[in-house]
User: Which sequence fits this backbone?
């Protein structure tokens, strides 16, 4: 029994491990970021990229940079099958890693569904804690067909994927400064930043902390799934040099 426990890696431990591999510097725009990998039929690629573009330019992703992989190519131990195409997109853990590199202690808490009305986030409706699952929470929630990302891009209201983090309130100025640098670098994935000792989107924070809500990097994949297009999503798949990625125009 003890051996089984040792082999089990909860998502929070996996996140904390890969955060340390982020070397991206938003000021110079170079270094490694964490990416998710999506795999689709090559015949669907153009349609999928258009959906990705719509979601990304609605501000519902981490950034609008991608890297394509052709059939037969391998990324982080995963080989793209014949007739398939791979799409690497920025994972929200990249932002955690940037915070960490700036000396900001960040504590990932959970992934969930956020209700948005008239382009304003209202509340979390569902959540899964990272320390309670070995599977990425957003992958689980996406598989339950709880999102309405496409509706959000059309009407400004819907349910999207997001992540909740906590940082010490003493780091608030550093958080604001780092977010501004990330925005300048094209990383717009911050959905909301709460006030110290104040609930954010209906979620309480620990004493002397504030909550940071980061948009889910898998929202583009959710929109594809909502469209009935087959897609395989490998969240937190690995790291990639940002210079290898191109802006999805």
Assistant:
């Amino acid at each position: 029994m003890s051996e089984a426990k040792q082999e089990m890696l909860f998502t929070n431990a996996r996140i904390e491990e890969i955060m340390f591999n982020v070397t991206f510097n938003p000021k110079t725009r170079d270094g490694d970021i964490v990416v998710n990998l999506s795999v689709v039929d090559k015949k669907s690629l153009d349609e999928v990229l258009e959906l990705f573009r719509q979601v990304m330019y609605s501000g519902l992703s981490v950034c609008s940079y991608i890297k394509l992989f052709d059939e037969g190519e391998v990324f982080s131990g995963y080989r793209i099958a014949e007739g398939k195409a791979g799409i690497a997109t920025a994972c929200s853990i990249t932002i955690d890693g940037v915070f960490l590199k700036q000396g900001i202690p960040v504590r990932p808490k959970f992934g969930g569904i956020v209700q948005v009305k008239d382009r304003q986030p209202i509340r979390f409706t569902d959540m899964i804690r990272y320390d309670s699952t070995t599977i990425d929470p957003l992958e689980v929630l996406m598989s339950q067909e709880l999102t309405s990302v496409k509706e959000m891009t059309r009407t400004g209201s819907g349910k999207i994927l997001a992540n909740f983090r906590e940082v010490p309130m003493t780091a608030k100025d550093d958080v604001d400064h780092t977010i501004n640098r990330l925005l300048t670098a094209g990383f717009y994935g911050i959905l909301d930043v709460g006030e110290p000792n104040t609930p954010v989107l209906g979620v309480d924070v620990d004493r002397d902390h504030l909550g940071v809500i980061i948009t889910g990097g898998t929202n583009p994949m959710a929109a594809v799934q909502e469209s009935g297009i087959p897609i395989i999503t490998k969240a937190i798949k690995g790291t990639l040099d940002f210079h290898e990625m191109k802006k999805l125009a």
In short: The mean pLDDT is 94. Residues 58 and 153 are 6 Å apart (CA to CA).
